[in-house]
Structure formats: structure tokens, C-alpha cells
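Okay, is this right?
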Amino acid sequence: MKKLLTLLLALALTLSMCSAALAADVGIVLPTRDEPRWLQDQARFESVIADTDYTVEVLFSQGSSATELTNVETLIAQGMKVLIICAQDAAAAGIAVENARAEGVTVISYDRLITDTEAVDYYVTFDSVAVGEAMGQYLIDNAEGTGNSLYLYAGAQTDNNAFLFFEGAWNVLQPKIADGTFVIRNSSEAIAVQDKPELTREEQAAIIGQITTDWDFNVAKSKAESHLTAATADEKGLCYILAPNDGTARSIADVFAADADVSGYYVTGQDAEVASVQYVIDGLQSMTVFKDTRTLAQDAMDMAIAVLEGSDVVTDATYNNGAIDVPSKQSPVVVVTQDNVKEALIDSGYYEASQFTGLE
């Protein structure tokens, strides 16, 4: 009996230790570990939390809403008090965050706004409309005359940010489409509404459905190849390309660079991924919108810590997610080109110069 009691006590102690090891004050769910952007975010989160007394657990959904739901349930079981989640599917994530809210967890939507649910307490984001406007303005600033060929691409229809990016780009590009500076070459849906300064959600969805890359390199490559195959030589020449992020920008740029009828191109991007920074240095990608994940992760973690400590949460905007106006915190963005790549990304300490070649 004494041996049995000792064994039971040891087992209880082991289970207690395991439970403590699994505890997470802040649970973080990110879309995938297969894109450099999200691994950078993970590193920033872990760096910020290391300076506090709180614990964090980062899980990846790997492109699956089902895995995302399982990840949230796992973190609930670990006793998280705050959930920071970048949704794989903005609408499908509603179930996961509603489950978290039901357990008393504060929900912070990270980078991508979760839609059509009241179970979102806060939203931490870069100004996604401003990102799209910066992309569109870059193309405008480098265009001369009229009849310039414009190729439009977008992110995934399941990501609300894809709509915000496109909205911002359309805000500045539409007047230049209407006056003939640009001619849309690859979207009949966009051509059908090219005289409209403001688009409905349904009109945006129709366009994005036609030009979506699904944030996938291969989809972007295939779509660009298809568009150039369908285009005449007169519809190529010097091309202006709205690419939604760095990964798709590199794929699309490679396709346009390989076409003999394309004399040159300007292509946008965002996220300042290492590979795209090198493309910018080499002149293969024209620009990238730098969104300093150190700032975004810091803002999100500051918000989480404020919740944990019962302090006031700092916000400076609201975003409507289709159900409520979500209190939000916006982080600034910077346009990076060959002219300022060193200042913006190296001198700021975001990257090491040794990660690149050809820097001056």
C-alpha cells in the first residue's frame, strides 16, 4: 500500500508538472510555417514575450481551417487567457474565436480581420488600405503617357486583407484607368466597373475571384503565364503589375521577364521578404511595402499584456468586420525601393547586410 501511495503521489506530481509546462498565458495561431513572413512573426512574438513573466505558445494552421480550430481548442485546454490569431479563412475562423470567447478568452485578430462574428475584442494590423494605395501610387509615379498595360493580381478571397489591399490600390489607380493612363489587360470584371471610383464588396469579390493568386507562388505563376499567352504583343511592352505580396510578385516577375514581348515591367509587392529584398536590389522586383513585424508583434503583445494586467488597451482606429466595429491598433508601413533599401531594412536593424549581395 505504501508503494502504491508513493507511486500515485509521483504520478500526480508528474501530471502537475506537465500541466504547468503546457500552460500558456497567450496563445498564438498563425496561418503557416511554410512562408518566411510567419516565421519572422513567430520569432518577434517569442522575443517580446521573453522580456515578461508570461508564457506563450505559437501554433501553425498549415493552410487548414480545421487545423486552426484544433489549435485554438488545444490552447484553450492549456488555459490561455488571450488568443492572438491570424486567420487562415476570415469567415471560417468565427467558430474558433467564438469557442475561445465562450471560455473567457480575449480574442485579438492579428494582421487579418476575422469577419462576421462579434467574438473579436481587438484587431492589430498594418493599415491595409494604405498598403494598397502605396502599391498603386508606385505604379502611377512610374507611368508616362497613356495606354500603359496594367495587369491586376490579388490575394485570397478568404482573406479580408486581400479586399482591403485591392480597395486601396483601386482608390488611386481608378482615376488613372478612367483617364486612359492605364489599360487593364487581364480582368474583364475590372474593365466592367473601371469607371466606378468606389466598388461594392460584391464587385470587388468578382474581380478578386478572377485575378486571385490564393497567396500561392504556383497559382500566381500559372495565372501570369495564362494572361501573357492570351495577350497580344501590343498589350505587353512596358507592363505595370499590381502583385499582392512578395511571394507572388517574384513568381509573376519571373514570368513577365521571360516573355520576349515584354520590354520591361514595374511590379509591386509587400512584406520585405529576404528573397524579394534581393530581387529589389537586383532590379527584378520594383518595390516592396515594408511592414515591420517587430512593431506589429510588439503592438499585439502589448495589447495582450494590457489585457492580462487589467490595464487600458490602446487603440487608434476601428474596422467593421460585418458584425461589429472592432477596436484596432494600426502600425505604419514604408515603401522600399533600390533607393532606400539599405536605410529602411539594414540600417534599421531588421536585416543584416550579410544576408544580401549587391548592396551599396
